[in-house]
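Notes taken during the Thursday session

The instructor put the following on the board and asked us to keep it in front of us for the whole hour. The protein is Glycoside hydrolase family 16 protein. We were told not to look anything up and to reason only from what is written here. First, the residues (458 in total):
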Amino acid sequence: MSTPIRPFLPDNTDWIYQPDLSDEFNGPNLDPRWCPYYQASWGDMDASRARYRFITESDGATSLELYVDNAGQGYWQPWRASNNTYKVAGITGGARDYMNMWPSGGFPVTNHVPYYDGFATRYGYFEIRTRFLSGSGLAPAFWFLGMQDAAYTENIEVDSPEVFTKNSQVKFNLLPRQGMDSQSKVTDYGPGTPLADLNDGYHIYGLEWDPEYLKLYIDGQLVSTIEVAIDYRMFPLISLNHHETNNAEVGNVYDNDPPLPNDETFTIDYYRVFKKADTPADPWPNYQNPLLPGYNIAERAFINIYGYDGDSSTSREGKLNDGDRFSVADTYPKGSGTEEENERWYNDQFRYIYIEWHQPVDFDTVILYATQAQSTAPQNIRIEVSSDGYDNWTTVKPDFDLDWQTDDPGVAEGLKIMLDTPLEQNQHARIVINTAPESYALSEIEIGTQINVSTYFK
Ligand SMILES: [Ca+2]
Ligand SMILES: [Ca+2]
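Then, after some discussion, the predicted structure tokens were revealed:
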């Protein structure tokens, strides 16, 4: 009989291991629940790709080792002066476009990142066993972000911790996005503090997330408490930033004496989640419609239209998927970023509307709604699907014209598109906009099987 897995806490009796939310990182491959890119919707796609390997330690433990490939890897945002001197290695337990975005603005989305939801949850005790290199220029972090299930505003950041190795600082940060004061509790480590030298090998970092507070534990010792009530799902990120030039708090990797090895590493034995028997269940949006023929199931989709409303709306899908056929999602052809970001966004992203799902779904009909349809709506489109949302997109509805009949702002015209073959167990689809006004608009997308279309008058 195997020993039950327990958390490394002074009192661990009530915590129950959650294998479906945990990863022992025993290889040989990365669990497909992790997104193997680090916030690639904001960064260069290849530079965001996690470099990793599984290694066996002398004690027999297998660990995931994230590393920065100094020679073979580019900068995370080579086009942006503030971020073009560091490289990243990271995996995230949740992902989608417009993740980590806040209503006051952010970087334009420069790559589509498929929807991942394997590790998002609410409340519990979250633990990693890890080791990392010390020295200037490195910032390994184990952190959490809001999954933004219902609204963009559910996007707090919890660093638990972020470690700035230059000054031997463990930072336990709470970074709300909505203008609230952030809280940062900095714990120095190393000689002269009660904590062990965290550079010397594996240590255990734990975040207890209670409805009333967050507590950070290091090697079973409580080091920080922040009173805060976060009541929506968050997902974990495990990342290493590698700064080549000076960062005020982090330093730079050329400042190290002796020099670091070429590949900077962040090594994780496991990521474990525990809950108590009375931990409240995860919240999930209160959808109206079941996934059955005759219902509009688009309310369960993550629909990403690349445009102004998608950037700034507080609702998750903006005005494109709010159930109101007269509230309109306008795109605009240039983003708010650098020239290169704007070009990339316009050329690579502007002409796609991605439709992704929490679970596989069946559908045979897509209905587009538009007001002022003839002058603002897309004019020629096709529909494609992919098994993983990254590439190998195949056409399920070839290029065709949208024959809009009206051009009145007081009319929401519906246009029904029947797929040639019903989609079964689909998770990643997209509408490719072949022809449209430079700034195009739609008010709603409805999806389902045997669903009906209408035209609505204000
Ligand atoms: Ca392991
Ligand atoms: Ca709408």
